[in-house]
Task: inverse folding
């Protein structure tokens, strides 16, 4: 595996979550704090939150020193989509375990993607 | 292709960009405004910017009504990594063309990913 030249990103989709957790700003703020804290990432600003009308879900964005974290939740579908981007390589967070505990997720799909790699091409 | 159930995301890596453009907050702010404006996405807050020390790059995050946009730039490597997430399906933005014009990008790699799809599994 080549060294990523523009960082690394985890795209995490959590299925079968508790609708109540996905609609709770407190729950999501606690989750953001635990992700940043356990990975040793320093917030560079307060998180931005947007609570959609009609309990349609919540969006969150957190700018970190060398990275960022986002989430978008869909309480009615039991779904949440997280991105964690980092300029530097780092250890993975235990998404499946933690999201099961904190959101009641029954299935967590994690994609780890290198950023800035060139695709194979001619010469 | 199944309908995405937690939205869609474009991960865009731009190579061979002008170092000066990648280190310019004005250039990146103009770019963010043109992406949001051309796609008809309404900002839900002011963008967050972080200029890294030693001209190491700039990070930007923009919370939009039903989506978000991020960038991380690496002027010395001529690289920029963008994410555009949307809760709803929408048309792609002409990344290659626009980033060539606005950042001098020589090669743009776009990955379009459905969010919230279940992987194939037993039963």
Result:
């Amino acid at each position: 595996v080549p060294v990523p030249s523009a960082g690394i990103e985890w795209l995490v989709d959590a299925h079968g979550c508790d609708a109540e957790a996905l609609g709770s700003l407190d729950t999501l703020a606690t989750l953001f704090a635990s992700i940043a804290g356990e990975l040793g990432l320093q917030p560079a600003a307060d998180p931005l939150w947007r609570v959609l009308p009609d309990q349609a879900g919540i969006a969150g964005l957190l700018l970190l020193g060398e990275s960022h974290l986002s989430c978008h939740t869909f309480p009615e579908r039991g779904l949440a989509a997280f991105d964690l981007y980092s300029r530097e390589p780092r250890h993975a967070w235990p998404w499946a375990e933690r999201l099961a505990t904190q959101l009641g997720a029954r299935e967590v799909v994690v994609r780890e993607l290198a950023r800035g790699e060139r695709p194979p091409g001619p010469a």
Summary: The mean pLDDT of chain A is 93. Chain A touches chain B through 38 residues (CB under 8 Å). The helical segments of chain A are 19-22, 25-39, 95-103. Strands of chain A lie at 8-15, 48-51, 58-64, 67-74, 79-86, 107-114.
